[in-house]
Amino acid sequence: MHAGRVARFRYAQFCPVARAVELLGERWTLLIGRELLIGPQRFSDLLRRLPGLSSSVLSDRLASLEERGLVARRELPPPAPAVVYELTESGLGLKPLVYELARFGVRFMGRPRSGDHSEPDWLRLGLDVFRRLGATPARAFSIRVPDGEREVRIHVAGGPQGTVVSERDEPADAIVHAPPVVVLGLVSGGLDPAAAASSGAIRVEGDAAALRELPALFDFGFIAPGSEPIRPGSSPPH
User: Fold this and answer.
1) What residues contact 192, with CB distance under 8 A and at least 6 apart?
2) Is the pLDDT at 225 greater than 60, yes or no?
3) Which residues, at least 6 apart from 120, have a Cβ–Cβ distance to it below 8 Å?
């Protein structure tokens, strides 16, 4: 055990749920796992992407995950040498857990709250969570989300095997330029694409009419009765 590490809380229960909560129930641990599901991250990347997380707590959580064999460190080669953290094969077992938490948590999302942080590439993870697994319309879309001086590109394709979400740069029926919350409104059916284009909320290249089929590539049907589709609201108050 690392010097100065605090002894971990243990439940006196012979139960796999209790064991999982002992490991993952500490604050920030699951969110660190979410970040590493997106891809390998440097220590500084994790601090930037998780505002409010201190370097000491991050060190502690990463050390714990390394001890349990869920996270490993890897050195990147020159010309930009750096150490990155990535999930091991065992650590990738977090994926279905994180995905089910996302399906549960979307019921309580509402509008962005004041001070809420967001990373554009969280959208790719979210679209993969809610993609439809059964046959979907054979349409393809390229979603482009602004991220400072660059953009995050997400390719969404339907077909008989279900929806595929990837980072591939492949042909698409329509290319959509929009911020994440607007994309969520489109894929959930809560935002009319024609109205969004007319208002300037999105910019479309290609077959704009194809966007009406975009919600059919995703499954938000599990949301509790009485819940509304995701609709982008006004900016949160400051």
Assistant:
1) none
2) no
3) 145, 146, 147, 151, 152, 179, 180
Within 13 Å and on the Cβ side, how many CA atoms surround 219? 16
CA dihedral 143, 224, 104, 178 (to 10 degrees): 20
pLDDT over 80 (residue 132): yes
* Whole-angstrom distance, CA of residue 92 vs CA of residue 37: 7
Q: Which two tokens stand for residue 47?
A: 């601090």
Place of tokens 């609201």: 233
Give 16-108's CATH code, choosing from 3.40.630.30, 1.10.540.10, 1.10.10.10, 3.40.720.10.
Answer: 1.10.10.10
Within 8 A by CB and 6+ apart from 16, the residues are: none
Structure tokens at 238: 């400051």
In the chain, list all ranges with CATH 1.10.10.10. Answer: 16-108
Region 183-192: mean pLDDT is 92
Which of 49-58, 129-138, 181-190, 218-227 shows the lowest mean pLDDT across its residues? Answer: 218-227
Distances (CA, A) of 224 to 112, 192, 221, 227: 20, 22, 8, 6
- Name the CATH architecture for the domain at 122-217: 2-Layer Sandwich (3.30)
Cα 11 from Cα 20, distance rounded (Å): 10
- The count of C-alpha atoms lying within 13 angstroms of the C-alpha of 175, restricted to the half-sphere facing its C-beta, is 10
pLDDT of residue 238: 38
Report strand pairing: 174-177 vs 164-166: unpaired
